[in-house]
Automatic annotation (TrEMBL):
Species of origin: Undibacterium baiyunense
One GO CC annotation: ATP-binding cassette (ABC) transporter complex, substrate-binding subunit-containing
Name this protein carries in UniProt: ABC transporter ATP-binding protein
Upper lineage: Bacteria, Pseudomonadati, Pseudomonadota, Betaproteobacteria, Burkholderiales
Alphabetized PROSITE patterns for the sequence: ABC_TRANSPORTER_1 (PS00211), ABC_TRANSPORTER_2 (PS50893)
A Pfam family this chain is assigned to: ABC_tran
GO biological process: carbohydrate transport
């Protein structure tokens, strides 16, 4: 395993500046996830690390060696793409060993690596099959295995699960996490799926428009988002945003809420007053008989082990998660409370966390 360091990185494609002045340090052995919407530059950044596209500025170091202009074959990386890209006329075994055979790896060593990775990925019974005889999940495991047999310093994953159905994504997500625990390799993973990011990552890098918005553990990014974009991008349903004012006693007041936030810890020293945006996760809003606020049920979404209930509270629509076995009718009036222990406050002008 190896660390990866990007310094003052710039990427220009077809005259468009995709990424500029980007710094990122990936620790050896960590599972780092690049998360963001389509077009934010996360895949472009991954391809630059792999050497598939040139950078316009800055440097790329892998294991302490400058690899900015090194050929992809010299970077000691294994890459898994969104498409399986398997040779249809080759067996699983031949697909996995193709790169090793091209590089002149001894036959005994190829066999050792293939057997080891095939056992790890539950591919041993499939080694003599061709891709047409495999399911989508099996094909993706072969693509992952093709990267693993290289025994590289760093593994790069470019949205490898996006073409799979929900059940297969869940299964392969678990296998990838177990694989990382077993190998302890450095892995950099690109996705727009927040569930993948939250479940796989040791750290998440949230990106927007070619810029890093926040870097942190899944818990930190979810519970203490640095701005409105990060707060709204993570979470399903997304964080509720409520416009209001904060008075001198740190009481938040809006059309539908009045909350004592005197225990709130600001991101910077000092206090705040005036216009603010209150961020409340759906699980922080509890429908209960003794709730101090009132709303009307407008939509109920059964999710199996919980309900997502949407309430109209004045002009504000809020979502909340209900874990108990309860039923709600559209138009029903309910009472609710707000858990203020993990709320967030944002400046409506800068959109930064207060």
């Amino acid at each position: 395993m190896a660390n990866v360091r990007l310094q003052n990185l710039g990427i220009n494609l077809s005259g468009n500046q995709i990424i500029s002045e980007l710094d990122l340090a990936v620790d050896a052995g960590e599972f780092l996830v690049l998360l963001g919407p389509s077009g934010c530059g996360k895949s472009t950044l991954l391809h630059a690390i792999a050497g598939l596209i040139d950078v316009s500025a800055g440097s790329i170091e892998i294991a302490g060696q400058d690899m900015t202009w090194a050929d992809p074959s010299e970077r000691q990386i294994g890459m898994v793409f969104q498409s399986y890209a398997l040779y249809p006329t080759m067996t699983v075994e031949k697909n996995m060993s193709f790169g090793l055979r091209i590089n002149g790896t001894p036959k005994a060593e190829i066999e050792r690596r293939i057997n080891k990775v095939a056992e790890m990925l539950h591919l041993t019974p499939l080694l003599k099959r061709k891709p047409a005889a495999l399911s989508g999940g099996q094909r993706q495991r072969v693509a992952i295995g093709r990267a693993l047999v290289r025994e590289a310093e760093v593994f790069l994953f470019d949205e490898p699960l996006s073409n799979l159905d929900a059940k297969l994504r869940t299964n392969l997500r678990r296998e990838l996490k177990l694989l990382h625990q077993q190998l302890q390799s450095t892995m950099i993973y690109v996705t727009h799926d927040q569930v993948e990011a939250m479940t796989l990552a040791t750290r998440i890098v949230v990106m927007q428009a070619g810029k890093i918005q926040q870097i942190g553990t899944p818990e930190c990014v979810y519970e203490r988002p640095v701005n409105l974009f990060v707060a709204g991008f993570l979470g399903a349903p997304a964080m509720n945003f409520i416009q209001g004012q904060l008075d001198a006693q740190q009481c938040f007041v809006s059309e539908s809420l009045s909350l004592d936030l005197s225990s709130y810890v600001f991101a910077a020293d000092g206090e705040c007053r005036g216009d603010v945006v209150l961020g409340v996760r759906p699980e922080q809003i509890q429908i209960r008989d003794d709730g101090q606020f009132n709303g009307v049920v407008t939509l109920v979404e059964p999710m199996g082990n919980h309900l997502v209930v949407w309430l109209q509270a004045g002009a504000q629509t809020v979502s909340c998660i209900v874990n108990q076995q309860r039923s709600f009718a559209i138009g029903q009036s309910v009472s609710y409370g707000v858990d203020t222990s993990k709320i967030s406050l944002f400046d409506p002008r800068t959109e930064q966390r207060l």
